[in-house]
Amino acid sequence: MNAAVAHARRRHPSARWPAPIDGLRQRMTQYLALHGARHPAVAASLLEVRGRVGCDVDEFAHRLGIEPDLLRRAEAGEVSAARLPGRLRRMVSST
Amino acid sequence: MARLVAGDTAAVFTLFEHHGHRVAGVIRRQLRRCGVDDVAVEDLQSLVLDACMELLQVAASWRPGGALPWWWAEGRIRAVVNGWVGVHADDLDDHLASIEDHEVFHAATEEREIADTFARLVDDVPLVALVAEAARAAKIDDLILCCLLDYQVQQDQGDPSPAHTLAPRYGVSPDALRQRVSRGRKRLRAVVDDDPRFAPLADFALVA
Predict the structure, then answer these.
(1) DSSP-assigned letter for residue B199
(2) pLDDT band, very low/low/confident/very high, at A39 (cuts 50, 70, 90)
(3) Does any CB of chain B come closer than 8 Å to the CB of residue A13?
């Protein structure tokens, strides 16, 4: 299977199951809170967005035009929603 | 999974969205093993969420090139499923309610004395009536018969020394009680051996 076919299959609706992604975000929020994150909901939302896009931190930060370090800190739950750059804040509020 | 191994927590969302159906397959298989053939979609999704979070926590141990993660972590997933299915057991409500009410239990019979139980069973069970008849034929009085029955009950309950247990109840020494039981059994045995009417009692421990 070449990369194009694999990519097409991954995007095809039949390859996905009805994933309750909200449930995973809530579990992730609890998980991060248990591990000491100060802003677990913000971090879980960012992780969800990047996880669904399928990028690593550097690539995702590059696409958004922000510092990778800021994204890492936000995903670690160290940054509140109010302190996020506008584009990230909109992503968090839309999830 | 390689991203999870590298510590990229976001990859669990990718895993869940793109491979959740594979994890669901492993879960369904384990559910069938537990005797659960039908599971609600919501419950299955919740189990997949739990399984993915388990994978996140053990991802650092996974080696690329090995088994697929959901097979590699099958033990973890199985534990999630087993925890959800739980252990089935019969309710003990009646028993617990009786304990809470401080009810006094009579485990085997309703009567307080073995003589009363024996008298009831003589009327209800033909073999017990035959024992009573054999005792009369052997000229064993009620007291000796009760001694024999009590001694047998104690033995059946695992009492290592029934004579010491029962001697205070009958107001005799353990040796005297042991002798009383021995003589009673011998007389009963003699009657059972001599009279074909009592043949059904030949294998009874009471006359052994």
Answers:
(1) G
(2) very high
(3) no
| A8 at B interface, C-beta within 8 A | no
Contacts of B36 (CB under 8 A, 6+ apart): B85
CA atoms of A28 and B12, how far apart (whole Å): 9
Shortest Cα distance, chain A CAs vs residue B16, angstroms: 7
Instruction: State the nearest Cα–Cα gap between B42 and chain A, in angstroms.
Output: 9
Residue B87 DSSP code? -
pTM of the model: 0.52
CB contact at 8 A, B13 and A24: yes
**Number of A:B CB contacts under 8 A?**
60
Contact A37, A77 (CB under 8 A): yes
- ipTM of the predicted assembly exceeds 0.85: no
DSSP secondary structure letter of residue B206: G
- Does position B205 have pLDDT exceeding 90, yes or no? no
Long-range CB contacts (within 8 A, 24+) of B69-76: B69/B1, B69/B4, B69/B15, B70/B19, B70/B22, B70/B23, B70/B25, B70/B26, B71/B26, B74/B26, B76/B51
Alpha helices in B59-89 (DSSP H): 69-72, 74-85
Q: What are phi and psi of B204, to 5 degrees?
A: -70, 140
The shortest CB-CB distance from A51 to any of B14, B21, B53 is to B14
Paired tokens of B181: 């039981």
